[in-house]
Amino acid sequence: GRIFLSGCFRVEFRDFFIADELNSLAYSFWTLSYFFCAYSWQWTDLQSNCNISMVWYTPLIASLPPWWRLIQCLRRYKDSNEKVHLANAAKYASSILATIIGAIRRMYPSKAMDIVFILTCIINSSYTTTWDIKMDWGLCQTQSKHLFLRDELVFKRGFYYMACLIDIVLRFSWIMNFVPMRLNGAILGFILAVLEGYRRIQWNVFRLENEHLNNCGQYRAIKEIPLPFALRETVKQPDEQDE
């Protein structure tokens, strides 16, 4: 309910974390219209009656998760006046733009639309990948003693390098749509959706790790008591002195 009403409440970690999860369910949102269409036509001649790639409202439904996150970012900027939230909002705006242009390309295929789609996806994938690694995971710190990472690590360094490589590859997985393959388009879409699910699970692990380290570093959560700290000395009364 809080996600549906994004912008009406002060954004907490649970709000944007769950909204980010929904961003990886774009395939499910995309096929949701197929589900309702199949029932409305009583599962008859679905190939012609429910060609969802040609339905105008389908990309709008798929754009709901990044739209919710965009609204949350604007609300966080309003509450904190930190411009980083505007940059994050622009990231989700690029995701919405890529989804809409992808739908237009399917409805009105042409070489020009292919070029526009590729350029939009390159911008979106580069933006989101950089944000994943730098902002969400807190890596690529220039002064870190670990190359391209950060000083404080929970896991072994190799896990971070592998996670970054996988994140980059899967963020650009849309390129598979332009590679000649014998796979059916629907099957390829399902495979890419499963890979996106894995990417989001991986993102969750390092995003929560970075949030925990930030909480501890800013004393929003305490893992150890910083020194020095004040002690209240208890003075014994005369009748409490040992004999």
From TrEMBL:
Keywords: Membrane, Transmembrane, Transmembrane helix. It is a multi-pass membrane protein. One of its GO terms (biological process) is cellular response to phosphate starvation. GO terms for cellular component: Golgi apparatus; plasma membrane. GO terms for molecular function: inositol hexakisphosphate binding. Residues 49-239 form the EXS domain. PROSITE patterns: EXS. It holds the Pfam family EXS. It is found in: Membrane. InterPro entries: EXS_C. The chain crosses the membrane at residues 24-42, 54-71, 158-175. Signal peptide: none annotated. PANTHER family: SOLUTE CARRIER FAMILY 53 MEMBER 1 (PTHR10783:SF103), XENOTROPIC AND POLYTROPIC RETROVIRUS RECEPTOR 1-RELATED (PTHR10783). This is EXS family-domain-containing protein. It comes from Phascolomyces articulosus.
